[in-house]
Amino acid sequence: MIIQLNGLTETVSDELNVTGLIKWAKEGDPDLMVEINGRYVFPKDYDLHMIKENDKVEFINPNLGG
């Protein structure tokens, strides 16, 4: 399926939850925050929240500063 990940179009497998997407992206920041379609996803819900076609996912790394 096609999603937007940090502004880039990506093709990922179906039946993917947030935890799986983090692993797929090889994201290693333990403080990573995830936003999907403009809504924050709590870490306790990563295994339950399924990624859907055309979702807009943002990975936010708070330790990088800005």
Secondary-structure map with pairings?
Blueprint: E1 2-5, E2 8-11, H1 18-24, E3 33-36, E4 39-41, E5 56-60
Q: What composes the largest sheet?
A: 5 strands, mixed
Name of the CATH architecture: Roll
Q: How many distinct helices?
A: 1
Low-confidence blocks of residues: none
Number of strands: 5
Describe the strand arrangement of the main beta sheet, using strand numbers: 2-1-5-3-4
Counting helices, strands and paired strands, the structural category is mainly beta
What proportion strand?
25-35%
Number of domain units: 1
Mind telling me the CATH superfamily name?
Answer: Beta-grasp domain
Provide an overview of this structure.
A five-stranded mixed sheet has the order 2-1-5-3-4, with no helix packed on it. The chain has 66 residues and is mostly beta strands. The protein is built from one helix and five strands. Helices cover 11% and strands 30% of the residues. The protein has one domain (2-64): Beta-grasp domain (Ubiquitin-like (UB roll)). The chain has one helix spanning 18-24, and strands at residues 2-5, 8-11, 33-36, 39-41, 56-60.
Please summarize what this structure is.
11% of the residues lie in helices and 30% in strands. The protein is mostly beta strands.
List keywords for this structure.
66 residues, Ubiquitin-like (UB roll), 5-stranded mixed sheet, 11% helix
